[in-house]
Amino acid sequence: xxxxxxxxxxxxxxxxxxxxxxxxxxxxxxxxxxxxxxxxxxxxxxxxxxxxxxxxxxxxxxxxxxxxxxxxxxxxxxxxxxxxxxxxxxxxxxxxxxxxxxxxxxxxxxxxxxxxxxxxxxxxxxxxxxxxxxxxxxxxxxxxxxxxxxxxxxxxxxxxxxxxxxxxxxxxxxxxxxxxxxxxxxxxxxxxxxxxxxxxxxxxxxxxxxxxxxxxxxxxxxxxxxxxxxxxxxxxxxxxxxxxxxxxxxxxxxxxxxxxxxxxxxxxxxxxxxxxxxxxxxxxxxxxxxxxxxxxxxxxxxxxxxxxxxxxxxxxxx
Length: 318
Known about the structure:
Layout: E1 4-8, E2 11-15, E3 35-42, E4 46-53, E5 74-78, E6 82-89, E7 93-100, E8 121-125, E9 129-136, E10 140-147, E11 168-172, E12 176-184, E13 189-197, E14 218-222, E15 226-233, E16 237-244, E17 265-269, E18 273-280, E19 284-291, E20 312-316
Antiparallel strand pairs: 1-2, 3-4, 3-20, 5-6, 6-7, 8-9, 9-10, 11-12, 12-13, 14-15, 15-16, 17-18, 18-19
């Protein structure tokens, strides 16, 4: 059994509620695909279910899961039209990956490379590559693992910036990425810092944070070269967003739209739009919120598929 931690209105309260340890995560967009896929997560048990998203933002019903059921993982696009899910926890931290074809078919497990961890984030960079970064091992990590344009994950790269988990990542500027926000459980410290990633996968030192420091957020690209971070938790759950310019500059808080929640996932779709989906809002939910190509978040769309949290999402397909 692991610990589930929730921040509640009267303070910090750890409770043993379900077999998922310190459960908060966020995920990214990458790869430039026109469709999207939500996958894995935690409902009443660990899940490997996936839900495909069309190029118009319509979410499909559950697809039977492939690979190890787990949560607190990350996902990103690679090779312009494919994706992969990686790392996470089954109660034990993992480094395995599952490749996703350009028609949304998830493969069986690929033996993991790099340090097993959870609560990490991932994003596409360099037009056809990806990287996983940060997360929690036995301690907070800033390690990264680059992914080639054929989906091969590299060994650990020494971390740069503040080691933390519970963050999110997204692509911006057509070929770059950034990691942002996050949390350290042991010190109850929330961050709004970001770390930019160059088009050759080099991670920069910390950039002073903008907007409300929080955890359990998600991030995605929109508008072909921009990104946004959204939702999450300080003590109460939030629906605010922070837009990211084509040069990686994060804006101040934008008033939230839709149901406040954390532990959701997000992805780009349709070449220039994005979608937030699923998460936890006093209970697991399956609702989605579409994002226009100008970064405007829509009200809730009735959820499709199994309500769950701590899942991951990525774009894929043509």
